[in-house]
Structures are given as structure tokens and as C-alpha cells.
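Dear support,

I submitted the protein below through the web form. The confirmation email said the job was done, but the results page showed an empty box. After a refresh the structure appeared. I'm attaching both so you can tell me whether what I see now is the final result or a partial one.
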Amino acid sequence: MVVNRGENKRPKVVIIGAGFGGLWAARTLANKPVEVVVIDHNNYHTFLALLYQVAAAELEAEDIAYPVRSVFWDTPNIDFILAHARRIDLQNRTIQTDSETVSYDYLIIAAGSITSSFGIPGVDDHSFFLKTLEEAIVLKNHIICCFEAAARQTDKVSRRSLLTFVIVGGGATGVEYAGALTELINGPLVKDYPTIDFSMVRIILLEANDRLVANMPETVRLYTLKKLKAMGVDVRLGAKVAQVSSDLVVINDNNNILTKTVVWTAGVRGEPLAGISGIPVTKDGRVTVNKSLQVPNHPEIYVIGDLAEIYDEKLVLPMVAQVAIQSGIATAQNILWQAYGKEPQHFHYSDRGSMITIGRKAAGVAIGSRTFTGFFAWVMWLVIHLFNLIGFRNRVMVLINWAWDYLLYERAVRFVFPSEMPSVPQASSCRAKRDSYQ
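What the results page shows now:
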């Protein structure tokens, strides 16, 4: 399809979302004969693969964030708008944001995903999520404040509840955070809180299925389970959460858990923008796109990343960074083809492997039919994540913090700041009043 835009007018491409997919799509369109506008409600890109380390006091938020405008400061055909995209007018080809209305010739929706509570009572009100920098900071604050409160708590039951940390979801995020939290508690926090009996501390990982990191090969899955147990994590498979309250997790085997901390990593769903705008979505909020990543009946609209339900033969591609990056690049190239009358190409995903880190010198890597575990896999994980970070400063700061932690068993950022940061759960451990712990 060719957009009629006059002799000198270049096609306008709007990208909603500056995550992996949106950012790589914009990079591909840099200095090309199109006008690009990137819209995001944050003015920074977050390296989500390391978000759990912010929540475990290993990295600062600034270490994994990079200003979007800095990415494109020398790219004259790319503009950025700090706004929240509220609705897409499909007929008039405009986007309604909370600050202005933006028109488009071509649209790339890379809005990503949000946490899904699956309708389980109490999850939205009483759980901590781990999808944004704000949520990671709130969770880190809460963990530290739990130990502050436990150090002064005289009631044994209340103290044990404060020192019980439940992580729901045995995917990559849940496993990685369980390992990082264990190392934070058994390392720096032991020294920080000498009055606490650390034999009371429990980290419980709940997974509804019968395996952890189900998308990984069996070798890595078994290694992950064995390593977490060796670290002292109480892993419970086949444990389905039925309800969450301010001080209790109800699970299907009636073995309920008293806790002040529920970290919900059990699932995600597509960001609601597409559904709100009248684009058909699946039950988990994703858009089923065609082989060229276009919305059916709207060839000028592409959906990529977590929001897109992309089929590779008969399987749906996972919601991971590599899918977002590759789909973003392919979509940008298709728009360049399409804008000048050529047919867009089918998207072909190249699986470059997957990896997971469990803790210090412990990781699992799967590349094709080969798998690696242990120290070598951990080094591979470190190098690849460091290489993919955006910005030289970020790489240096992350490397320094990792080295500091590795050599001195020390977490450099275990402070509560800001102390009054709002959080999703109704009761925050960092409130001035700690009535909920009495």
C-alpha cells in the first residue's frame, strides 16, 4: 500500500513504546526517508533483563535505564513525545495521548505487556509486581524495611511473617529473583541485622506447574531446581495460589503461608491499548498478527514484541527480548518496503538461545541443542547482558557493582530511597506508621 503524501512529504511512522521492540524499530528507521515519532510514558528505555537486580539491591535503577532522547540525539528524522497513548482512532489514523493527538501514516504498536493476576482475589491489592523500575524500587524498599521492622518486633509470629518472602511464578523472573534475594539476605543483610535469628528467614518459590523455567531444556531445569534448593529456597511445584491477603497466601493444598511479602511473577498479558482501540485481541490481551506482523484489515498497523501473538509454524513465540528486537527490525524494514509500493516480507524468527542465572557462579544457557550450566554459563550470561546494555556509563556502573558484589559479597545500594514512594500493595513496609506489623 502506498500512502498519498505529495511530492516532498515523507511518510510518518509512529512507534508506541520505547522498549526493546520499539527502540530497535526506531534504530532501523534512523536516517531513512521517513519521519519517525516515538511515544512512551517514560522518557527512558529499561533493560528489563536486569530489573530483578534492582529489586535485590544489586544495581541502581539508573544503571539499567537510558534516556530515549539520548539514543537519537544525532538522528534528525526521529522525534520523541513523552505521553501515554490512550486510544488509537483506526479510521482517522490518529493516536489520542494524554497531551496531544498524533497522526500517522504507519503505526508500530510496541506497548509491551503488563502483569496478569489471572483474576485471583487479592493479588492486585496485596502483591508486589516486577515489571517496571518503580515496582522494583518499591520491592527493594519493602524487603529492607521488613528486616528493619523484624529487628524491633518482639512477637515471634509477627517476626516470622516479616521474614517470610513468597515468590509466585517459576519462570525466569521468579527464579532469578529468588536466587538474588537469597544472596542478598545470606550475605549483606546478615551483617546488617545481627539481632535477627536468620534461621527464621524463609524464601518460598511457588510454581503452579510441575517444573521450573518450563521453556528451558530439561538439563537446565533440573540444574535450576537443584541449585535453588541447595541455596535454601523452598521450591513448591504444583502449588496454585487461590487468594492473597495482607498477611496470608492461600494455596491449593491448604498449606497456607503467613507472610507480609508476596512477589507476583506468575504471568503477563498484553497492554490494553490495542483492545481499547478496537483491535481484536486474544484472551490474554495480545494481537494475532499475520506473517508480516500486520494487523488483519489494517496493513498500515504493525504489532510487535510482547503485545503480538506471533506464530512460528504452529507455536506462539515467547514474550522475550529477542522476539521483540527481531520483530522490531523486521517491521521497520517492511515499512520501508511498503511505503514505496513493495510487498512486506514474512517475519522469520531466529532463535539465538535462552539463558537464566540462579546466583553467584550459577546459570543455565541453552543454544540450539547445546546446554551449559554452572560457572561457564554464568560468565556467558554476564558478558552477553553487559554487551546488550545501552550506554557506556551503564555498562561501567553495572560491571563495577557486579565486581563489588562478587569480590566483597557486598550489595552497594541497600538503602530505602525515597522512603515514601507509593507502591501497588495497600500496605507498604516503608510507611512511617507500621501498624500493619503490630
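Response: this is the final, complete result; the empty box was a page-load delay. The chain has two domains: 12-41+83-115+269-339, 123-266+360-425.
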